[in-house]
Hints:
alpha/beta, Thioredoxin-like_sf, Glutaredoxin, 2 domains
Amino acid sequence: SWNLVWKLYLTHRGIARPCLLETYHDERFAVAEKIAYISAKLTGQPQSGSVSIGGDMQRELQYVCDKHGPFFTGIGIEYPPSFLSLDDGQNPDIAIRPGARAPDGRLNPSNPLVDDGPTRLLDLFTAAPRFHILVFTGIPSRNHRALERLAELLAMPEMYLDTFRNPRVSTRELFDFALIVPAIEDPKREKCELLDTLGVCYVDDVRGGDRDGLYARYGIDIEEGAVLIVRPDGIIGCWEALGSAFEHENYFASFLAHRDGGT
């Protein structure tokens, strides 16, 4: 299970504290219980006779498959709130809550002459045990001050990502960043210090309609934006408002080891 692999890797290398590995049981035990329940429902069907189309057995099987289909594929798995899936309940409008799998969607690089062309969000999530920090910029001209402040925080040596730097792994190996601009905005229209700091910017692709855009799928306000942290296993770790991102007690402090060996 990828849920276990990345936790073992970070703990074994001293990048994370033991409490991270302990979350494996808490998260996967509930999943195992549900698998056992679904299996019991399926195997508890009568074994004699055939599954006739429209019959009671066929309808029961169809009901179980329809109800638990996303769970079968792993897309519908959700983990309970914890320090690893931090849900403070203060964002009632978001469509996907921490503990759920991050939805996929199309993205267009802001500079197609340099980049490879359209891609998908999940293609940016490499198999490496790396946290993905998605900065949904909202309207850059509206959020210019918040974006500049975020750029300053990321550039500061004492900034918390640098606090967790490990001698055996660089900050860039542990964290990656992607800026996602609404399709109605041109990221090159206004200079943004955050773009210079990170150098990775994409435009939300909504060619398939509003529901196909990442802002809509995640329930992010297209004007205000948000910062979203995705765990190495593709599960949403936490949401932060764009204007206050990284300024308070941060998400990573609860399980990553500090550079100085402290907790």
